[in-house]
TrEMBL record:
This is Uncharacterized protein. Coiled coil: none annotated. It comes from Acer yangbiense. One of its GO terms (molecular function) is serine-type exopeptidase activity. GO terms for biological process: proteolysis. Belongs to the peptidase S28 family. Signal peptide: none annotated.
Amino acid sequence: MHRQVRLCPCVNQVVLGGSEDIKSVLGKFASNILFSNGLRDPYSVGGVLQDISDTVVAVYTNEGAHGLDLSSFSPSDPHWLVAQRDKEIKIVQFWIAEYNARLSSTKTGNRVGS
């Protein structure tokens, strides 16, 4: 005899393996994470849609869907997609520049950001 069971996954428990919410966990130890969402994706409600910290950030658009910003560039890309990609690139470029500045300062004996 088979019995049907309905399950509703708790996204935070699946991802984190516990009951703490993702904001408090990532806010404690994470950095340089960019969550990209398109709100046309039905699973976006389970995504990170607000910045958790200065370096754990959410970028989203009303028009996009899952992974669309990761697709190859096309001249026919809509303006909102180009703008989202540009924003993501600027965020990552800033993180890289910040890292390089710290790396450079440790080589010269100066401490940046401490």
